Structure formats: C-alpha cells, structure tokens
Amino acid sequence: MNTILDIIKKYRSQLNKNNFHGDIYFSDDNGQLQIDRAVFNKMIDKVNSNFNEQILESNADWLLGFKRENFEDNSGKLFRMDRNYYRIALLDETALVALWSEETEGTEKKTDECDIIIWKEIENIDWYVDEVKGDFFRFFKKNSTDQIDLNLTRFGSPEKETTIKTLLSLFLEIIEFVNNQEQDNINQYNELKQEIENLFSEDKIKQDNTREKAFVLLEKFKNDYIDINSINVDADFYYYYKIASTEKSIQAIKIFEEYKRICDNANLTYDIDITNLIGQAYADNKDYLSAVNNFAYSLENSEIETKSILEENVTTAYAELKNGFSNIDYNKRKLIFISYDILHTSMDGMVVLKKDNLPQNIQFPLNHPKENEVYICHPINKNAYLPIKEFEKELFTDRLHELMLLLGSLGAKKIDISSQERNVNTENQKNNMQANASLDAKINSARGDYEKNSSEDGSLEHELNVKFHQIFNPKKAPFIPNNLVWYHSNLGWQRLANQRLNGNLLIHTEVISTKQVETLSTNEIKKLNAEITFLWGKAKAGGSYTNEIDFKSVTERNYTLEIAVEFEDIDNLQQVVSNENTVGIENKTTSNESYQQYAEEICFMLEDDGEIDEKERRVLERLRKNLGLSEEEAKQIEEEITQLSQNEKEYLEEYQAIIADGEITERERRLLNRLSSSLGISEERIKELEK
User: Fold this and answer.
1) 157, 20 in Cβ contact below 8 A?
2) Residues in a beta bridge with 140
3) Adjacent-strand bridge partners of 122
4) Residue 465 reports pLDDT greater than 70
5) Is 512 helix (H, G, I), strand (E, B) or coil?
6) Which residues 6+ apart lie within 8 Å of 8 measured at CB?
7) Model pTM?
C-alpha cells in the first residue's frame, strides 16, 4: 500500500454502512470526504470548541469519518430535559480525532470528551469488552505506559463482531504502515546526515565541487527535516555545517544572526559548537568583542573535557580585544561589567572585562574599578568610565566645572548661579560666609571673593562643588583652554566663545541641565538591571545582586542651573596684555591650531624623562618654523608647559596637606578631582604633579 487512503479502500467493502448503527463516511479517489457539508461543519466546530482554538480545518484531507447520535426523550419527566448524545470520529494520514458530547439545555450536563491520537505515537491497538463501559478500542502509546480508550460508539457503533474486527484490522494496518514509513524516514535521515558529516570529516570541503555538493545536501536536509522557524537538534546540525561550509566570515556571521534570531524568538539556548564556530568567524573578521562573547558562551555551557580548548580561544580573543578596545564603537562598549572571569553577556552595548586584566587606556575614578560593578562610558571622553550609580551627577558636575573654566578663560568678572528649583538671592541671604577663591591664575592672573549662601542652597553648592556667586579680576585676553572635553560638541558654548573672541560680549546667561546629555533610556536601564542580575548569578560574587538601579529616579533626577555672567571689557584686557607683554592664545599672530600642535609636541617629548635633548630640540625647531611661530612665542609656550602655574601650586598645597594625614580616602580623592577640574588641570598633569 502506498497511502493510508489505499488501506481504507481495501477495507471499504467490508465496512458496509448497513453494519453500523450510526453513519460511516468514505472519501473519493481524490481524498475528498463524501459527507453533507452541514454535518461536517458541525463535527469541526464541536472539536474546535473543546480547545477554544482552530485545531481542525474544514478543508483538510479527511479520509474516513463516523457519526452516531442517540436522542433521549424526557418530555414526560419533570426534572430532566431532553438530551442528544453526539459521537464522532475523523481520521487522516496523521491522526485520529474522536469526540463524545451530551447536548442538552438542562442541568447536570456532562463535560465533552475529545481525544486526538497521533498515528506515529501508537505502538498497538486492542479490542476490549466491558459490561459497564461497553466495547472499546485501547490505543497503546510507544515507549510509555499511557493508553487511550475509545468506546465503539464513537465509530458508528458497529453491529457485528466481524465488523469490529475489520475496523480493528484497518487501524492496525494503518499503524504498521505509519511505523514502517517512519522507519524509512529515519533511515533516510541518518544516511543524509552521515553523508554531510563525511564531507567535512574527510576535509574534502575545501574543494569547490565538494563544497557545492555540501550546500545542495544541506538545503535538502533543511527542506525535508527542519521547521526553519523553530530550533531543535536538526536545526542546530544544519546551521553548524552551513556556517562551517561558508568561506567568508561575513557570510558566516549573517547565517549565525538568522540562527540567533530564531533561538531568541523561541527563548531557546544556542548550540555551543555553533557559538564556538562563529566566535572564530568574528575573530577572523577582527570583531574581537563578539568573538570573546561567543567563546565565553561556549565555555560557560561546555563539558569539562572541552573546557581547555575553549579557554584558549577566550584568552586569545580577549588579548586582541584589550589591544583594540578604544577603537570599538562607543555604542558597543557603552557599559562594562567588571568580573573575576570573562563572561558572556546577552545585552547589546555591554562588555565584561576582567578586573586583573583591563585595557590599559581606559580610566576609572579613584578606588575603581570594583569587581561585580557596572560602569558607563563618558559620552565625550570615550576612554573614561564612571560608576553607573552616580553617573548622572558626575557628568553634570563635570560639564558645570568645564563651563566655569571656559567662562573664566573668556574674561568673566562676575558669575551668579541660580537653581531653577531654588533660586539664590544674595540680597536676602541671612548668613553669608566670606571666602577667597582662585580661578586658574595661569589663565586669569586673578583672585576674587565670593559670597556663599549657607542655607539650603549651600547644600547644593557643596554637592556640586561649585560656588554660586563669584567675582573675579581677569587680566589675560580671552582664549579657549586646551583641555576642554565638552566644548567641542556644544555649539552653544562655541558660539559664546566666538562672540567673546571676535566681538565684545559683556553679559550672557547659560542654562545647564542633566537632561542635555542623553545617557541611558528607561528601557535600557530595565534591561541593564535584568542583565546585571544574570551576570551576578554567573560571577563569583559570593551573594546575590541587590543594588538594582532605580531607573525612575535616574531618569527623573534633574539638576538645572541658570548661570549669569558679566565679562570684562575686552579692550581693558587687551591693554593689560600689551603692558605685561602677554599673549593670549586666540590673540597670537599665529593660529590656535599651530599653538596647540607645538604644545602637544613639547608634552610628548617631556613624557619619557621630563627633558628635551639636543635631537628633540632640532625637531622642535623645524616644527616651529613650519608652523610659523616666532622664537619668542615658542619660548613662552614651552615655559607655560614646563613651569608650575599658580593653580598647580594651589593644587599641590591641598594635595600635600591631605597626604600628610596618611592615605587619601575616596571622599578626599573626589574633592581633589573637583578642585583640579575647577582649576583647569588635566588628569595627566595631576598624575605628574603627584609623583
């Protein structure tokens, strides 16, 4: 027999309709069930209503059907309404569907019984006679103690024993046919898999004709055995060899992305052989971040006997990741998790780094990084990372201090800061404290007084480490400091500087807010919390992660300050400059770019031993001439770099006072960092001063 329909045709003459109390429906030669449309639709609807979904389709190729109805007339009974007992069975090449239903509008209606039996799951069928239950067929499942009993009333209630035996023989022959067909499919499946594996195991895949044959066989395997929208061992097999047979790493990565998407949609794990294979493809493509992540996934989920090879892959890729870390796109390394081990992370934009093996060119605050903590990349200084828990305030403070430095460099003589939440009114201050404040004597050659409100706004001043009211006596012509970070991406600050340098702006108001810098969205923080908890579960943290980031407070916390500044008349500053024979950067006869290039070259030559030898001096001389700098200008630039400024002396005094008490605490380091920022001293220069 070629099909189940052929088997049914074989028994059709023996299953005469007259041998059933109910009805039997056969299909024609085209597999179309010969049944009244209304009768058939009721069968389909009754079954689907039991599952509350569309289990059966009306246009399916049903090959055989049965129906038996018994009406119970209770018109003469007071407490029992009429009932109709409805029983059906439908079968096709894959399954048998049987239903029993008590149809009534009365009470005590019994629940419908509906069974779906998959032919390939059945090992045997037998006929049982029971005086209580009545005659029934028992379907035994393969490799299981489960069994399903179906009363013969569901099969049209055959009248004679010979008819029952004929019906049983039909079902047994269908089971035998399905099992034989399944075994044939298994044999074909195994032969095809073996042929594909042989092409790779014999290292023939490097030959063009063999690779082409492998592609053809893989596609046949995919079409015959794989549901491409789900992942199982067959899909893993297909994608592994599909990636392995692809010459170009870019194409292999595209195939993996398809595989990964299907796994993610189904919430399934990846096959570690595939992630290890694609890790090498990423490494070949110089994407060491993705390579490390996939190698780490394979290592975390591998058996002990394969760990040594995988550990070598992780170590090699991580070394390359370290060397090129700064060149990785900002959005791909926006967040880092510090761990004892190299771990896989599923969150885009996060990198796991080993605490004792970090890239050399990334920077952290004092006493950081700490194990099992998350850090976020500075949006401007892409090599600096801040603790995730304080990044909003730290970024805001950083921008505020830089703005104060810029205003002072442009010749500010008075700065008033007010909080839009709590305005500072110096006229109504009840308790003022006088204090001396210096603002980069090297830049402004000035010292001034400021009035500090000791009420509630004093706490905000202390929190942000900035004075809300300052008066200065600037001396130098306006210029732009070299070590600015935020300035180059802030068009408003650039316009302000241009107005001061090329005009005579005297009054300006600037608003600075945490909302002006986009860092993490609410959705990103939600994902981050979930990922941190997952990483903590894998890391050797000795506990559970409890420091969940409050995304609501992070996104809603807002510092907004209004900064009003009065500048010194630029003509007065120019007069002072000419009297003291001082040259501001923007007023030099040469360009600001020439000045910066010459200054950077001097700093580079001073890095190794702090001195400029004869060979370096000759190089500098050639550079000076090429840049069009005069000898006097070059000398002044070098003196400004090599001599301690007044601000640097002030910082050293504070540093030496703190270090005299012993080790610098984390709080003291934060105070020093803010002092250096307000004085306009770079991190590199701070390191030199503290040596």
Assistant:
1) yes
2) 124, 147
3) 141
4) no
5) strand
6) 26, 27, 63, 64, 170
7) 0.56
